[in-house]
Amino acid sequence: xxxxxxxxxxxxxxxxxxxxxxxxxxxxxxxxxxxxxxxxxxxxxxxxxxxxxxxxxxxxxxxxxxxxxxxxxxxxxxxxxxxxxxxxxxxxxxxxxxxxxxxxxxxxxxxxxxxxxxxxxxxxxxxxxxxxxxxxxxxxxxxxxxxxxxxxxxxxxxxxxxxxxxxxxxxxxxxxxxxxxxxxxxxxxxxxxxxxxxxxxxxxxxxxxxxx
Amino acid sequence: xxxxxxxxxxxxxxxxxxxxxxxxxxxxxxxxxxxxxxxxxxxxxxxxxxxxxxxxxxxxxxxxxxxxxxxxxxxxxxxxxxxxxxxxxxxxxxxxxxxxxxxxxxxxxxxxxxxxxxxxxxxxxxxxxxxxxxxxxxxxxxxxxxxxxxxxxxxxxxxxxxxxxxxxxxxxxxxxxxxxxxxxxxxxxxxxxxxxxxxxxxxxxxxxxxxx
DNA sequence: AAGTCACATGACTCAGAGGTCACATGCCGA
DNA sequence: TCGGCATGTGACCTCTGAGTCATGTGACTT
Lengths: 212, 212
What we know:
2 copies of one chain form a homodimer. Chain A is mainly alpha-helical. Chain A has 2 domains: about 5-60, Arc Repressor Mutant, subunit A, CATH 1.10.10.60; about 75-205, Tetracycline Repressor, domain 2 (Orthogonal Bundle). Helices cover about 80% and strands about 0% of the residues of chain A. Chain A contains 12 helices and no strands. The first copy, chain A, has helices at about 5-10, 10-30, 35-40, 45-50, 55-70, 75-80, 85-105, 105-115, 120-125, 130-150, 160-180, 185-205. In chain A, helix 2 runs parallel beside helix 8. The radius of gyration of chain A is 19 Å and the shape is elongated. The first copy, chain A, starts with a helix and ends in a 5-residue tail after the last helix. Chain A binds a DNA duplex through helix 4.
């Protein structure tokens, strides 16, 4: 938790610090992010930074909390009643809301990617120790339900498929970011295409790439 | 290229240095790998290290070259005549030879993982600048051939599928390593299971996880 | 025995990291 | 006007990184 001083700051200043820190962590990852660069970017003194936060970990955790908070706003209504929809509809909704989030908060989505990419890193293990297991448990529940309903083949290796689905999540975002990078960061233009790709992608998970 | 001095070294010493460096890069990645730790581990002076290599990049590139060399030995005969087999057989062969390699050279496979994980890192861009494009081109060729033969649905987004297949490659290895980690590094025991998983996995790519 | 040459060595430089601290500034109530 | 207290500041600390260099060593030549 940041120190009280940080929360007493004028909103604008606080926002600038957070934004600068987000950008730093997004582009360099946790280990290579530099407090010096953050304070320079946010135009505050190093000493001030340490009046706001206990240490590097502290900012990072705070940002993660803020991000998680923000991400909640994007969770589609579909995902709030998982029992009412079939597995692939849920998956599609998850991807779509994820991409919506990424489109509107590209920096934050980049951090999300870093987190997934380095989910074995001690700091992430620490922050998401229960979160990860809970996520897997939720996924597992969904898969079992889908199998019971006959939506998914019963012969799949559940832990393996969970891992794959997680990874594909990252892969899709990476693809998305690479696309917009190649496109001179012109996001709005490519967005609809990517959204279409999601549908194709869900179809791929469902039916494979082989001919029927 | 390492300096001549390095190649004049007795085989044993050279091997020790290489092994130590491999292990360092495998566990810490390029940025966080420490020359100090390498020289300590290999029991040579820092100065000696710089008599062998120009700089950090130099060792790394050398190791990559050695690894690529070694990996060639594992390429299955199936993959050497890609025209003679259907796409999924090729994919299966690729995964199997990859896992064979990982089983017998776990440290090196870990580096391979690092490379894939950080394929956007400047050093990897530099090392594999043509290699990556060539790989993608090869994949693309295979996919087009497979589509022409009617093995793969013609409506797939080729670049996207290439990206996905690449990512899944890493995902499989990560899963493999996580499994053996949980199993106290007892590899031989789990190996056959993992090989079975590959078959299931290929099937998943071909037919998806949905019910037919 | 003297000289040469390849290799070995670790103390050193400089840069940048995260984090600290003595002091400056400015606002607010008395 | 003054004291007190929250906030701001940047020089400074220690640590570790990559990379350098003057010097040492030992084998082989002449």
